[in-house]
Amino acid sequence: MKDDPFTSELKKERCTMKKLIALALTAAMMLSLAACSTTGAGGASSAPAASTSMASSKAATASGKTVGIAMPTQSSQRWIQDGGNLKSQLEALGYTVDLQYAEDDVQAQVSQIENMITSGADCLVVASIDSQALVNVLAQAKDNGIPVIAYDRLLMDTDAVSYYATFDNFGVGVEIAKYVEAKMDLANGAGPYNIEFFAGSPDDNNAHLFNDGVFSVLQKYLDNGQLVCQSGQTDFEQTAILRWSQETAQKRMEDLLAGYYSQGKNLDIALSMFDGFSYGIAAALEGAGYKVGEQWPVITGQDAELMACKNILSGKQSQTIYKDTRVLAEKCVGMVQAVMEGSEPEINDSKTYNNNVKVVPSYLCTPVSVDESNLKQLLVDSGYYTAEDLGL
Ligand code: BGC
């Protein structure tokens, strides 16, 4: 049946309207694609395909919502990348972001989170300095109905945390230790080698897991004498370094060299669980007369900081752990979306991370060991650094 003139006009109008809506949607999609364009680790972050397609459909949830991000410090490169990646990925979805760094001052972090709560944050993402110091302020968040996501470091002793995005922390320790095992040919009985340990901050739950992972691989070589710790300091309480301080690591290495390695004994392995420690360790070794290429020990690390990567290429450091902070941010952003919408985020571990009050549902990203043999392939080919960044 042919339409009367009125119906026909109405259909034309609807058709034009549909075209306009389609055009507007395409434009919005192009904009979000542009906002999500991939850059390196230190930049505005890669926006993975998942986030890109999320952008248009989730914008409605995000609009007018604020996410408070509490980061521990800018003194180490990784947290600057983490903050930048989270901010850009959340902003691409339409959130307003309040990003704060507390420069390893626990009380400052408490105040920053308090301010986020009073200024009306809708969700909090927290990478703590002291995992146990935030119990009261997180209770305030809960009382105000603000969901909390633990970022990289577990928030202990609280039921206010909904989800946890991190790396396989035990796996980090295993990877570091397996590197040492292979490099020193320990599985074939080589040694004895002198080793000293530099573990992380005791108030960071991750540090305990890194340490457990390391000793799960190396304890047997200490027991059978293939590895010798001349200082005898193998307990976490003896090797832990408060607030992940490079200066403290350097001082500890100086003391160990003076106390246990002054009479012809050479240090063969400095098992460092953080790139920042590795710089301090290298400085102490240089101060004691060690030279790169001549009896220079194997030095491990964690985070694949740019300086550590350059040191790997020059032989000053042997290894580090690559944690792709772009992926971690993406997983965390998925959790933010889920708590805002009341849906389920992607998790892959629901039993490991007990914070003394609850087992926190987690997503564990995969850490990867890097040395000179795979550095270019892992870090440059993935766009984490450019060849120029590394002076290649
Ligand atoms: C992180 C490591 C980092 C360390 C020091 C830990 O909680 O998991 O990647 O090296 O803190 O910042």
Mind explaining what this structure looks like?
With 392 residues, the chain is α/β, with parallel strands linked by helices. The protein has two domains: 61-168 and 324-365, Response regulator (Rossmann fold, 3-Layer(aba) Sandwich), CATH 3.40.50.2300; 170-322, Rossmann fold (3-Layer(aba) Sandwich), CATH 3.40.50. The protein is built from 13 helices and twelve strands. It has helices at residues 5-35, 49-62, 77-92, 106-118, 135-143, 169-183, 205-223, 236-239, 246-260, 275-287, 306-314, 325-341, 375-380; strands at residues 66-71, 96-101, 123-126, 148-151, 161-167, 193-198, 227-228, 269-272, 298-299, 320-322, 362-365, 368-370. It has a six-stranded parallel beta sheet, with helices on both faces. A four-stranded parallel beta sheet has the order 7-6-8-9, sandwiched between helices. The chain has a two-stranded antiparallel sheet with strand order 10-12. α3 (77-92) links the parallel β1 and β2 (96-101). α2 (49-62) packs parallel to α12 (325-341), α3 (77-92) crosses α12 (325-341) and α9 (246-260) packs across α10. The chain is globular. The protein starts with a helix and ends in a 12-residue tail after the last helix.
Features:
disordered N terminus, Rossmann fold, 392 residues, binds beta-D-glucopyranose, 13% strand, 6-stranded parallel β-sheet
Give the helices and strands, then pairings:
Blueprint: H1 5-35, H2 49-62, E1 66-71, H3 77-92, E2 96-101, H4 106-118, E3 123-126, H5 135-143, E4 148-151, E5 161-167, H6 169-183, E6 193-198, H7 205-223, E7 227-228, H8 236-239, H9 246-260, E8 269-272, H10 275-287, E9 298-299, H11 306-314, E10 320-322, H12 325-341, E11 362-365, E12 368-370, H13 375-380
Parallel strand pairs: 1-2, 1-3, 3-4, 4-5, 5-11, 6-7, 6-8, 8-9
Antiparallel strand pairs: 10-12
Helix pairs in contact: 1-2, 2-12, 3-12, 4-5, 6-7, 9-10
The structure holds beta-D-glucopyranose.
